[in-house]
Write the structure tokens for this entry.
Amino acid sequence: MADQALPVLEVRGLETVFRTRGGEIHAVNDVSFHLERGELLGVVGESGSGKSVTMMSLIRLLPAPPADIRKGEVLLNGEDLLKMTPDALRQVRGAKVGFVFQDPMTSLNPVFTIGDQVMEPLRKHMGLSKAEAAVRAAELLELVGISDAKSRLKSYPHQFSGGMRQRVMIAIALACDPDVLIADEPTTALDVTIQAQILELVKELRQKLGMAIIWITHDLGVIAGIADRVLVMYGGQVVEQAPVAELFANPQHPYTRALLQTVPKITGVREARLKVIEGQPPILTAALSACPFRARCEYRHAACDAANPARRAVDGQPVGRGHDVACHWQAPAAQEAVHA
Amino acid sequence: MLTFTLRRLLLAIPTLLLISLVIFLLVDLAPGSPASEIPLTVPPEVRAKILEALGVNEPVHVRYLLWLKQFFWVEPLNGFDAIFGTNYAEGMQRIISYQSRSPVFPLIGERLPQTLTVIGTAYLVGVLIALPIGIYSAYKQYSLFDQFGTMFAMIGFSVPTFFTGTLFIIIFAVGLGWFPTKYDTTLTVTDWESFLKQLRQMAMPVMVLGLANAAAISRYMRSSMLENMGQDYVRTARAKGLDERTVILKHVLRNSLIPVVTVIALGIPSIFGGAIITENLFGVNGIGSALIQAIRGNDLPMVQTLAFIFAILIVMFNLIADLLYGMLDPRIRYD
């Protein structure tokens, strides 16, 4: 067993580019973060900010070509996943790292039964016989709240609703009792009541099973509800990182602050218009030589055009451990910050 | 599934009746009569008697109904008699070929085995070549193998069989002397030696037709594989830690086969139709050449009967393709 004091996952200086006909797209730029045992790390950012690409890079799920992981280390229990042979990596995927994808409607194979698909990782990684795997698969379906699990093993995905299918995906991801569960916007494609159910389910499973979770989302409400710590991503890099309460109380990066302002308040007077962040996230055709957010930033000044800001500590703790931000601008004191 | 099959079979009846009517009338409209085959030295009154005996003087609807009766009742009865040695069909008028003055069905029965062995083998070979090529080309898209497969398909598509056939004859039969130029229909396989001889004489027509068939099917297979390889469930399979073999040959292939199986099933009737050009080129005395001879010889009953048999086969394999589709894709249920 790995050292309990070490983080279960440590990512250092990850860089992923896509080689396209029009040149390279720098999708992930020098991303570093860690994940403690049993911790739930929320990753937020708008579409195109590099959240999903970062997480898929961890277990090299991106099709290569065009994706190319240039640099970095992904240490799972101290072992670098990026240096592993494809065979060794397959022993990690589905066994130590479970992945839940965004769209449950297309993530299951339509021509195989639910049972078959839940049993696959069990048979592959745990060496269970067909009968043993079937028993375990039924237990897993029950665990994720699918009633009458035994007979449901014979159902096909099209006989399940979206919420049910996402439960099945979670069951698959958890089948081999992974150390890390990566959930890539698992509730985005579901309607609100089902979203709430899935969130409750994950909270409950986390208590029962104790795995660490990376939860990618663009929903700040979800983050506030479940995360321990938050990474804010923009332009393929981490722009702010903090424990969840600290982030909401004392956001430092203009992007984080703007994001928080785009959330409608249910109390108080209704504002005339909801705030928006003007403009589009950048398409990164070259390595960053300036702040990626500068074009949309209200605090832009000369330094922003001159250099891409490095992450700096806000609260005196080492970068990555406490609260840090990648910004040239110094945010005013906490009480002036936006609502939490 | 059973009710669906029965319903489709019932629906096939009016379809086939309509097709039979169209075939009968179209062929009947064709100029020429069996009289033109009778030598001019035959006296007119004898000529009139022959025509009367052939039944060509009856009005068209009577001839149509008679043909239907013969096709669906008399001929099956004859077949029954032939198998069980009974004689229920005795004295009933069968469908008679104008050319040979003998019943049409035994003539077809003589021709069909050649066609099925040669064209059937060619189709099978084509499918067996095409599927692996399609699968591997898709898996290694834009690789050297894929480029080669694309070129192979282009050739198979664009070069007509009469050209590849002639080329093969020149190279393999005339030049290298590996295979005979003509197919010997009288050869019967009795021992190892004659089996090898049969294989040798089948080789060229099978290659020519196999190439043409494989070209189309390998393209279908490739594009179907490519379409499915980009699907989300493939990423899920990889995220489970499955090896590439399982991902491609289980998850992707099973989904990709659904449309391809349909295409393959729909192509089967064309085996029975024979490959007219190839059969002629290599002298395979099959259905295709029988049809050509019948058309040339104004043998209307033969043409009508053959055309209608093809129609029945097409309707039947359409149904089979639909049923296969339902078996491969759980989302389709016929209840």
Summary: Residues 192-229 of chain B form the longest helix (38 residues).
